[in-house]
Amino acid sequence: MGIRWASVRTVLVAGAVALVLAWVAVRGRWWAWAPFLLALGVVVREVRWLQRRER
After folding, report:
1. What residue intervals traverse the membrane (predicted)?
2. In the predicted structure, residue 1 carries a pLDDT above the cut 70
């Protein structure tokens, strides 16, 4: 089937954004929790989609 590179790129970018936002949220910026959870949700969705596609 091949690797879907757009999904891999989405996971990497959203993961990097989630890490930065987690760091910002831990430093006391309460507003960063909402975009952090959104980015984390995107990562989880894409990883699950890639795992299902491999079967």
Report:
1. 7-24, 30-47
2. no
